[in-house]
Predict the structure of Hypoxia up-regulated protein 1.
Amino acid sequence: MTITHLDVPDMTEEQVAASKKKLEDINAAERARHEREAARNNLESYILDAQDKLYQEDYEQASTDEQRAAIREMCSTLDEWIYDEGADVEASVYKEKLKELSKLFEPIKQRVFEHLNRPEAVQALTDMMNKSSEFVQRARDAPPELQFFTDVEIDTMDKLITDTQKWLEDKEEQQQTQALSDEPKLKLNDIGEKLGALDREIKYLVNKAKITKAKKDKEAAEAKVKAEKEAKETGKKKNNTDNSKSSKSKSGGETKPDTEEKDTSEKIVTGEEPVIQESEESPYLLYFEFHSCFSSSPPSLMDDSPKPHLVVSVIRHSHFYHPHAVHPPCWHQMIKDMLSCDETG
């Protein structure tokens, strides 16, 4: 009698291990192929991009003839190499070739980026200095009840503005005296750091004024409640005294109460608890009316003109973005929120 097994027999441990190894090898080869193709495509794209940009006016101005010639020669050499010796090399080889080419081309790209975005950055810094100067002047001229800052705080802000203005003038003069193909003297990251320094000082003063004004308003409201409470207690005592005198009057005699006085007393005794109304000039509105350079919605903050936070966005996309560069200044939005709060009550 012969027995025939129709199902597939179980695999041995050695066969399972061999199958797994084969699948892993296939997956590894597939990943290597994708990585190699991606690296090759990146190199080819970079070569085409560099060759095209070198004929653009901005890139011609930001580079010398020797620099452009060296880049074109390397691009031509790599282009031939890709379809010959480099047709089937590892991804790491393509990446190394790309790194060599980028060392020549990236500095030119960065100079073009700096030159194109510098005017907006300078304008944003100038606008911030102008508004900060108005801020300082109005703080100095403020009446005593609106003196939120010490002389040291105001002098510190004033000195920062003066130093920043001098720094900008010196850097602009240096920038104008050198060729566009040279390393820039006035860089976006440096402008961003100056914007950040002004932003930190402004936010400190704005927050201090807001907190101080809110504290004064709270104290005034508490004093008002206390005064009304004392007036109410006085009214109660006066009403009790009048009632006592009336009960001691002669028997049979009718004493006509003073209607006007009684009505007034009743209003005091039975009146509802006073509601604390916010001042028509809230802490935010009063403060920014004091600093009318902000409450008047200046073009540099409220319209589509160059703004510091746009410059910071530009700086963030720089190839040489400094990790400590200023974050987008938020005191402009703080001002808008404060004014919006006052308009809506």
